[in-house]
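hiii, so i know i said id send this last week but things got crazy w the move. better late than never?? heres the sequnce for the chain we talked about at the cafe, plus the structure i predicted for it. fair warning i was half asleep when i ran it
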Amino acid sequence: MRLKDCYNTEQFRLLAKQRLPSPIFHYIDGAADDEITYRRNTSAYEDCDLVPNVLAGVEEIDLSTTVMGKTIDLPLMLSPTALQRLFHHEGERAVGQAAQQFNTWFGISSLGTISIEEVARTISSPKMFQLYVHKDKGLNESMIQRCKDANFDAIALTVDTIVGGNRERDLVTGFTSPPRLTPRSLLSFALHPAWALNYFLREKFELSQLKDYVDEGTNIQLSVSDYFTSMLDQSMTWETAEKINAQWGKQFCLKGIMSVEDAKRAVDIGATAIMISNHGGRQLDGSRSPFDQLAEIVDAVGDKIEVICDGGIRRGSHVLKALSLGATACSGGRLYLYALAAAGQAGVEKALGNFRTEIERDMKLMGAKSVADLGRGNLRFR
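okay and structure toks below
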């Protein structure tokens, strides 16, 4: 399979599987326990049908929407994800450049592999920093201050990683950050020489936000699940989130909200937005899908806070369904990580181009000239 033959997320997934060593691919592709929630995140969209209108004069389509004070040209944001230079040597640089080209939000993780400062210097589209609250308070202060100094547009506090999920594929493959060299992994690396040469001969892998405070993940090999369990602050409360919001003082999003009760508390502490998210099915298996929870959360708080539907998106029609239920925008990780692993910046740009084409085509077929034209009258649930 070649890049030019990738017309959808599943084809990018297959190309990524072809190009990545097994432990790296399964880290992206895997989820918690039996991966029921991971699968449900996408299949939930299949339980909802679109009801199109016609003869609407749809020659010109406006895909823009406004999220956290920034107008973006595509109602699909690139969720912050960790370890991107493991998947392709261009890492966040490729994803950020693609986000800039399509003028949408780009998120960088606390476990990112390039620095906050480099992102600020090189990417002009809206920028979000995803904050993991660590036990090391100095590290937390450092990351927030660096985002302030770099004039990031928003912080997204991740609230669903109090402990790491049971990611059994990582246990089977022995995946760690940085990769652990074992006879099995060395064989997989040897069978993927292009990846191995890029990883071992280019700039040293690092977790750029963390390396001056902790060795884990940069110099000490650790699984991501174990990192969450051992390094993150399990005493975090709503008071912690409220203090971070006050300290930050700009657009503030809570990532990992799944219940109406928590959505209301996000409003109470003054958050700008929430991401309905179960961390891509990688934390609590058996939890609801974001799309399944979207309507009741929008009904409860949609007039008070922006609601972003995060996870499971594989098609432009999925985005339209979430927008029709009342989401401000959608976001996702695997939808661009497969493309990054497949072909770097060119892959991410092609993936986003595919989504833009699908969303525009489907809006025309729905008889919708803009995001504002989409509503629940266009949906029926089975």
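btw The chain is about 45% helix and 15% strand. thought thatd interest u
miss u guys!!
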